[in-house]
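anyone seen this seq b4? input:
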Amino acid sequence: MAKSRKGKKQAKSSSRKENNLFGFPSYIANPKIAFWSLLVFGFLLYANTIPNDYAQDDAIVITDNMFTQEGLSGVPGILSKDTFFGFFKQEGKAALVAGGRYRPLSLITFALEVQIFGQNPQVSHFVNAGLFGLSCGVLYLLLLLLFKGNRGEALAAFVAFGASLLFAAHPIHTEAVANIKGRDEILTLLGSLGALYYSVLAFQQKKMSLNIWAGVIFFLALMAKENAITFLAIVPLSYYFFTAAKTGTIIRQTAPFVAAAVIFLAIRFSVLGFAFSEPSLELMNNPFVKVENSRYIPYTTGEKLATVTYTMGKYLQLLIFPHPLTHDYYPRHIPVLSWGDWQVILSLLIYLALGVYAVMRFRKKDIISYAILFYLATFSIVSNLFFPVGTNMSERFAYIPSIGFCIAFCLLAYRYLKKGDKVKAFHQVRTPLMVIGAIALLFSIKTISRNTAWKDNFTLFSTDINTSPNSAKLRNAMGGELVTQSQKDENKAKQQQMLTEALGHLQEAVKIHPNYKNAYLLMGNAYNYLKQYENAVTAYEQALKIDPQYREAETNMAITYMQAGRYYGQERNNLTKSIEYLRKSYELRPQEYETLRLLGVAYGISGQPATAIEFFTYALNVRPDDPDAMYNLGNAYYNTGQNELGEQWHQKAFKIDPNLLEKRRRSAVKPQ
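predicted toks r here
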């Protein structure tokens, strides 16, 4: 009897071992443990972003977005306008990128955070890291569900865990996760994966009610970013490769996704309209223009296709070897290319080879073919081949397509590194798992290191300028940030150094992009702070020559004229030049109090008291209850011999502020 019990125990033990996927470790074989392991791993990889500040495009969707800043009361505006409207705050500018953008879901989450926590980047980074970790876990559950259907439990456990691990660790995702604005990418993928998971679950368990959840979740994915629409191809492909479903069944399972897409597109078109604007000839919104004979013209068809083909190859290179990384691939980080460039030809050959393999192995339901098609389908919408995306390329655009790469890599490792034709024990796939683990470790080190670049704008720009020195946008951003930082430093020598460095970057920006009006604006600001007023005015004039309606340049030029007038009057004692500059400022901004006051002072000192009265009166009209304005006007009347009027205005000033004279003495303001 004892032997019999022992035999039964051994049989049960053997059965348990067999049910444990041939001795696979629990972190791979147990779905719950694997899911939570990947979720926590994904979160921890980006935990070092939590102390970071806002950076890059966060201003567009959070800090400078009027709808987001209103909290939940801004949600109606978010839902009824282009995504960029809340930043530009006027019609027309939101559609600078062809086709416009309608991505309200992530902005709603930002508005919710502002409502509850105020403007808090740490909370936003925490949420991004958490959502990314959840995405890694959901990817694992989906791959496990797909592969277990007809590919065997051992392969399912290996590929689901290995591909999700690589996806979590891949450094190319840092832009999507470390930049708060990248939440649209995270929510889009999370929703798309979740929708497909519920759809397959509905099919396998015959619970058609789950298809409703699939449609709802996919609709939310679309509301996060339009890229989710590529899953209209991924869903039927997944059913074809991983199930025995007939065509009619595949169509039925895809129907909720189509319905969600139709509803989304109806909403999108009702908000943005049906017209798709042509790409502009502004280089920062359309990378496929160039300068010829001092004017901007579109690339030739050959140049555009060659340049796009090169960037397609660049994405593959970064998926395989993610270094160096940069947030900026704007012109001319990617140069104008032709079909005579070997890198273009190599990229074309690689994509042709991938396409041929995918087609040839399609009927055999080779999962490598599925991985390739997953990559190509999700990549198509951001490749610039079919739709303009406003830049040559961006690492965040590889966020969803990278899943195809991770699946293919794990399958290849499984095929060529495992021992034996069939997996009968864990040790037979230990080698490929170790390879994937080692790569994931290297990727993780790079990811954690790269996250530090996203600390704030200054850190990001000063880091990536070394990788993207030929980007006009980054040169401009670096110059602008140096100008901003210079005004926070009280060390005058350091200020001068930063402003001089800023000018160097801005001058490089306009060499690359001669019509870069914002670079000229920032250049004018830098010259202004350096008290090189003539150069500042020249820079603003150039900005206005490019865009006569550039109000910011006009305003800054008026301020520069005013500051130049004060400088020449107070520090150089050149009243003629002072009045000349102040008059120019007055012409641009006739209601600016400080300009009017300085003109009154300058005319008073130069012995023209009647004109001084005129400008002090204008100043008082701008600030009717200002005791300083009253006192200045009183002084001007005294200087013309109208003592009674002078006394009246002085008494009005003292009535409002009895301590006015003491305050003026302390501020070293000399009465005129």
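The first helix runs from residue 2 to 19. Confidence is low (pLDDT under 50) at residues 1-19. kinda curious what u guys think
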